[in-house]
Amino acid sequence: MARILVPLAPGCEELEAVTLIDLMRRAGFQVVTAGLEPGPVKCSRGVVLVPDALLEEVHEESFDLVVLPGGLGGADRLNADPRIHALLRRMHAEGRYVGAICAAPKVLGEAGLLQGRSATGYPSVVNALDLPDTRFTDQPVVVDGQVATSTGPGTAMDFALALIELLAGPEKRREVEGPLCRPG
């Protein structure tokens, strides 16, 4: 069973966070949500999420994927946390997956993980990044090696399903996607 870490920071985009958590749990993955600091996390639209653990308690554990929800406020807080950068670099060095959606690809960029890769993200955020060696596209989901990125709240379900397929194959994706009654 795949083990996933979803760090949650105040100001994160709740639609993205909850969609990622929900669909990956439907896939049977062990999903651990971790707050940067103690207590509930107030998201960008006022939804309050209660993390499973503190980042400090789990950031050195082994995960198959670390995926960052967006929301500019949350992404900025993740980006300012040296534990997040260290965790992402360690995951990358170990050949494990890292992912980010919406404004959060900026964190992957700051950690040096987008250099020489194709990626996507929230248009105004990626357009403001100074990453000349990164090929940004307007695709809803981009997977380049062990790095997965997505555009924003409207692509959260596609992103979660792509991550499920990366970790468990197309059959697991179909198993999760079928009962969602998505339009064909």
From TrEMBL:
The keyword Chaperone does not apply. One of its GO terms (cellular component) is cytoplasm. It holds the Pfam family DJ-1_PfpI. The lineage of its organism: Bacteria, Pseudomonadati, Pseudomonadota, Gammaproteobacteria, Chromatiales. Residues 3-165 form the DJ-1/PfpI domain. PANTHER family: PARKINSON DISEASE PROTEIN 7 HOMOLOG, PROTEIN/NUCLEIC ACID DEGLYCASE DJ-1-RELATED. This is 4-methyl-5(B-hydroxyethyl)-thiazole monophosphate biosynthesis. The keyword Transcription regulation does not apply. Keywords: Repeat. It comes from Ectothiorhodospira mobilis. It comes from the Bacteria.
